[in-house]
Automatic annotation (TrEMBL):
Entry protein name: G-protein coupled receptors family 1 profile domain-containing protein
Organism (species): Photinus pyralis (Common eastern firefly)
Family recorded in the similarity comment: Belongs to the G-protein coupled receptor 1 family.
UniProt subcellular location: Membrane
Molecular function via GO: G protein-coupled peptide receptor activity
Sequence ranges assigned to domain G-protein coupled receptors family 1 profile in this UniProt record: 81-366
Amino acid sequence: MAQITDTMQEYFALPTAIYTPNASYGDENATSALDARSTDQNFSCDAIRDFVNVTCELPINYAVPMYGYVMPFLLFVTIIANTLIVVVLSKRHMRTPTNVVLMAMALCDMFTLLFPAPWLIYMYTFGNHYKPLWPISVCYAWTVMHEVIPNMFHTASIWLTLALAVQRYIYVCHAPLARKFCTMPNVYKCLVYILVSAALHQATRLFDQEYSEVEIYWNGSYEYVCSTRTAAWVMNYVTEDVYYLSYFLFRIIFVHLVPCVALVVLNFLLFCALRQAQQRRDLLLSKKNQKSECKKLRDSNCTTLMLIVVVTVFLCVEIPLAVVTILHVLSSIVIKEFLDYYVANVLVLFTNFFIILSYPINFAIYCGMSRQFRETFKELFIRGSIGSNRNGGSSRYSLVNGPRTCTNETVL
C-alpha cells in the first residue's frame, strides 16, 4: 500500500490541494533549493514542501481570480442572503421543524465561507499568497480558520441537508409518524447531535500538525517561516497511514457517499410521492366540496417541490467533490498512483468555487417557490414590521398556505 499522508489540504470540507507526500522535516536540500529560487515567485513548490506557503496549495492562475476577485462579492451576497433567511425563518409564526433545519443550514453555509474569507482576501485579493507565513500563531490560525472550522460547518451542513430530506420524507410518506418524530424538541436535539458530531470529527485536526520556526533566505534577506510536520503522537502511536486513511475513509463513507446516495434515493421517493399527490389534487379539483383539502395539498406539494430543488442543487455541487476525494484515497492506497494531481487540484478548485456559488441560491429558491416566505419577507422589509401589522398571533400567516396539518407542520 502506498503511503498516505495528509496530502489534501481541506477547504469547505473538501481538498483544495493534493500533494505527493511531504519531504522529511528539516531537509537541508529543500532549504538550499529554496534559497536558490526565493527571489522568483514561481519557484518550485517541491523545494518548500515543509514550509507554509499558500502559492503551492492551489493552481494560482485560477485561484487568484476566483478567490481573490469573485469570492469577496460572493461573500457579501451570501452574508446578506443567508442573514435574510435567518431573519425571516426566525419569526414566531415561521418557526416550524422544517424551517428550523433550513435556518441551521443557512447559518452553517454562511460560517463555512465567513471564517476563511479574511484569509482569502488577504492572500488572493491583496496578492500575499506567495509570502511564507510567520509567526507560528499565524500559521496555526490559517490552518484552523481555513481548513478545520470551515470543514466542520460544511460537514454539519451536509448532515443537516440529509436530516431535512428525511424529515420531509416522513411528512409526505409517513404522516402519522411525523407527530411523534418531527417535533420541535426532537429537531433541536438533532441539531445539537449533528453539530457536536461534526466538531468531534474535526477535533484531532486541531493538533495533528506541529509547527516550528525556521530561518531561510527569501526575497533577498533572511526571514523566519513556519515549518510543519506530522505531530509526534500521530507518528508514534497511530502512524500516518492509519491516521489519514481512517480520516479520509470516514469522510468518504459518512460525509460524502452515504449522505449523497441517501439524498438521491429520498429525492426520488419524494418526487414519486409528489406525482401521486398531484394526481390526488387533480381528482379533488373535480369535487366542489373538497376545495379546502385541495388547497392544503397544493401548498404541501409546493413545499415538497421546493425542498427537492434545494437538495438537487446540493447534490450537483457535492457529488463531484465526493468523486475527487474517493479517487484521491484510491490513488493513495494502491501500489502505483494513477491520479493526475494537477488536474485533481484544478477540479477541486472549481468544485469548491461552485459550492461557494451555491450558498446564496437557497434564498432565491425560497423567494421563488414559497408564498409564505415571500409574504413574510415583504412584511418585514417592504411594508414594515409584522408585529405592527398583525393582531391575533400567527393566524393570518398560517393561513397563507392553508391551515396547519395534522402533523403540526406549517408549510414554508
